[in-house]
Design a protein that fits this description.
Largest sheet: 5 strands, antiparallel
Signal peptide: 1-16
Strand content: 35-45%
InterPro entries: DUF7808
Shape: globular
Number of domains: 1
Organism: Ancylostoma ceylanicum
Pfam family, one: DUF7808
Strand order of the largest sheet: 3-2-1-9-6
Distance between the termini: 31 Å
Protein name: DUF7808 domain-containing protein
């Protein structure tokens, strides 16, 4: 009985209501451009950090989760999620990083940012 109650609490606490928004980062060797919710592409705020990672802000301030949904071309073998590209949370929001051979590729990465929806129970 106690085990069932603990499982129920875990399921409820991890299934919060979330509003998902798409971000598309289009990169080549020299720079990246960001589109928010299928809007026009604009220059992305990118930098090279101390770990030789090319990181770009994906404008997900306030999001509490993300989901990388695709890369294009899908046949690109130099860009492998978790190894040569991924997202990471930073103090100011979320970054998409690329490193190694992937940082020298022309690639399009799509991400969904999850923004929590606060429900007022009053």
């Amino acid at each position: 009985m106690l085990r069932a109650a603990v499982v129920a609490v875990l399921i409820v606490s991890t299934s919060a209501v979330v509003r998902w928004e798409e971000r598309t980062l289009k990169c080549d060797v020299d720079d990246c451009q960001l589109a928010i919710r299928n809007d026009t592409f604009k220059p992305a705020a990118c930098f090279l950090n101390a770990d030789a990672r090319h990181s770009c802000d994906i404008s997900c301030e306030g999001a509490d989760r993300d989901s990388v949904i695709s890369k294009s071309p899908t046949t690109n073998r130099r860009c492998i999620r978790f190894y040569t590209y991924n997202t990471e949370r930073s103090s100011g929001g979320w970054q998409m990083w690329r490193q190694g051979a992937c940082a020298k590729e022309t690639i399009v990465l799509q991400v969904h940012c999850g923004f929590p929806i606060v429900e007022d129970n009053h």
